[in-house]
From TrEMBL:
Binding site for substrate: 441, 510-515, 710, 785-788
NCBIfam families assigned: AMP_deaminase
Tagged with keyword Zinc: yes
InterPro entries: A/AMP_deam_AS, AMPD, Metal_Hydrolase
Name of the protein: AMP deaminase
Amino acid sequence: MDAYALHLAMAALVGASVVAVSAYYMHRKTLSQLLDFARAVERDRDRGRGTAPGDEDDGLGRAALRHGQYGYRRKGPGYYRRGGGSASLPDVMTAVEVDEEDEAMAEEDVAMLKRPSPLMNGAFFTGAAAAEEEKRGLPIPAGLPRLQTVPEGNKKYVQTITDKIAGHANRAISPKSPVASASASAFESQEGSDEDDNMANDAKLDDAYLHTNGHLGENGKSLFQDLPDHIAGNGDPKSLTASSMIRSHSVSGDLHGVPPDPVAADILRKEPEQETFVRLKITPNEIPSPDEVEVYKIIQKCLELRERYVFREEVAPWEKEVITDPSTPKPNPNPFAYMLEQKTDHAFHMVDGVVHVYASKDSKDRLFPVADATTFFTDLHYILRVIALGNTRTLCHQRLDLLEQKFNLHLMLNADREFLAQKSAPHRDLYNVRKVDTHVHHSACMNQKHLLRFIKSKLRKEPDEVVIFRDGTYMTLKEVFESLDLTGYDLNVDLLDVHADKSTFHRFDKFNLKYNPCGQSRLREIFLKQDNLIQGRFLAELTKQVFSDLTASKYQMAEYRISIYGRKQSEWDQLASWIVNNELYSENVVWLIQIPRLYNVYKEMGIVTSFQNLLDNIFLPLFEVTVDPDSHPQLHVFLKQVVGLDLVDDESKPERRPTKHMPTPEQWTNVFNPAFSYYAYYCYANLYTLNKLRESKGMTTIKFRPHSGEAGDIDHLAATFLCANNIAHGINLRKSPVLQYLYYLSQIGLAMSPLSNNSLFLDYHRNPFPVFFRRGLNVSLSTDDPLQIHLTKEPLVEEYSIAASVWKLSSCDLCEIARNSVYQSGFSHALKSHWIGKNYYKRGPDGNDIHKTNVPHIRVEFREMIWRDEMQLVYLGKPIVPEEVDK
Ligand SMILES: [Zn+2]
């Protein structure tokens, strides 16, 4: 019988047109107002003035207004009265309930007017149901709020027996239920008003509400009508019959008692700090064998060698600048303002390829000494010997394997907890955690479609601009395109042909040629160079567009690498003035300088006579401006935004391994290009000295962050292990377990670009990124060359997206990678504090702020714990582990 009524009600509902229902609603509204009025009069008579409910006091107009809104509710109590009421429902209870609601409502009549939807639904149901029920003379539920008055014992009952039903019901009337809110405006008005005022009632509901996983779909309707069975019998649980239980369960499609998932609200109420964590207590082989002890001692020595070389600031940024203001750091209003800074008496000159600095011209004491070339190459050879030792390789391989397995086990035990912790971090998700593109070349920072659009628009708007001097004549943009037999209409991305394709695999030379739009070096010169006839105006405009895209994305940052070739000393001033004059500045961007390793090319062209020339051109201006900022004011201003120095070129070219005693740069006059490690040492040594000098003068420093291990010999990675702060690529670490283990222990940052590797040196599915990540190497994802590689407007997100899909990285993994990228980047202490938490410089979970990074403490603690265990082992129980991250 019940089921039949239910079906009828549903049929009535579905069948009735909107017009019919609203007509009915209007009718009911009037009717209920009348009824209510009658009821009020009746109640007055019954109880006398002393017990008059609150709503009468408000005056009729407002009461009528509310009744119009809450017609169906009013109908409830009225109905009871009319039908004689239920024996189990004393009148007092209803009256009290009405009063409570009225008080709550009185506060925001206007808001009420705007929130028809959830109640409207109810009105429809009860309206239609009322018609049906009226025929049968059965009581109709007075709407769901009455559930709130269920006594404690009964509430429990409702909760345990009718989990889902109660859940549906409560959610249906809950003002926050998204299903119930038909329109955004209704939703908004609810957020503002209802929730606070009805909090007391909601609080009572919590238990039942939170233990449900019900979704209010089509079933919601029938569940509304199931309610009478439980609610009408408020005081009498027995009224819930077996048949109605089965029916209601079958409605929600769950007969098997699957434990409900926690609902979102439940998760949100949980403090992320209370994350629980299944800790791994696996320490196989705690006591190393004598052979292993030998290996660990060797590894210790390697780590100590690195510590001796790599540049770190004396005073950490977080000691220099304590951030007390938690708000967003104010953007620099005038990043190009030059403040006159005092010249110091420092004297400097090159000695065997390395700048020596003295306190004054007359001083003989060298300041800031750095290891000489012979020492460096000796140590490099030591590392190279170590990484070739059989027993070292075996042990490192085993350790790395174990690290990977530990991570897998951690995921198996804790992945759900991590996900729960992420859910409980309000507001933050993968999209609004900060990600830094740690490795991207400026000349390829726009995507191909962007470049194409830009070229077309220039051809349309500035066809008569004289843009190039070629073959003895000045040419306008239009003439250039005529000389190429091209029109703006012809141009498309395919013709532009800047994208890497299968012809570039293992062909760095061909990849480089892709920088030429339409295969034409003249187009590259016009659009992608800053030292051309139009003084790089087009490239500056393009760059600004890229900057504004970044600013719009808000959570994406980039470190653009821009070239200094070392052909002449004036390059620095030229670059700086290009940046300053075009006001190329964004809060989302810092710069790195990349030095192409092209000595042999310049030598052949007769631009330089020795390697020393190259070093002079690169480093002397930097020392000049540091000693006397007034000598190159623009460069001085620009250097404040330069955070790193890079070495770039095709690593796969064959080269000779340097010996311990190499010719000095002055002696290097042959036409051959020096080896990677030769470049690396001289760049490192001069940069180290420069940084020491800059630091002593309170200036910003520049980290050594070269390309290394993209291809070629393993020496590159050995050299950068000794002297680089972090590196780009590093995929060749997969070939050397010892170096990989050393990079892990030192936590050297790897800015990896699997999509770029896929175009050049290594198929995507063979990329070691996921393995490195699992083992706990400090990896980030970067784009390298969006112009040649990426297809979308957000290349960094594209990189994350493909990695996530192919390697099945979880949201937690991606957020951890994003967090790594901020650590690896050269952005200021203030920005890092703002982006990833004010204690970011502390190691382990203390330094993590899940509200900013969306990385669960569980994950950070796991990484820290495993790393400490490993250090413990390597240092044979006596590790020196700092409390703070590397400066
Ligand atoms: Zn690169």
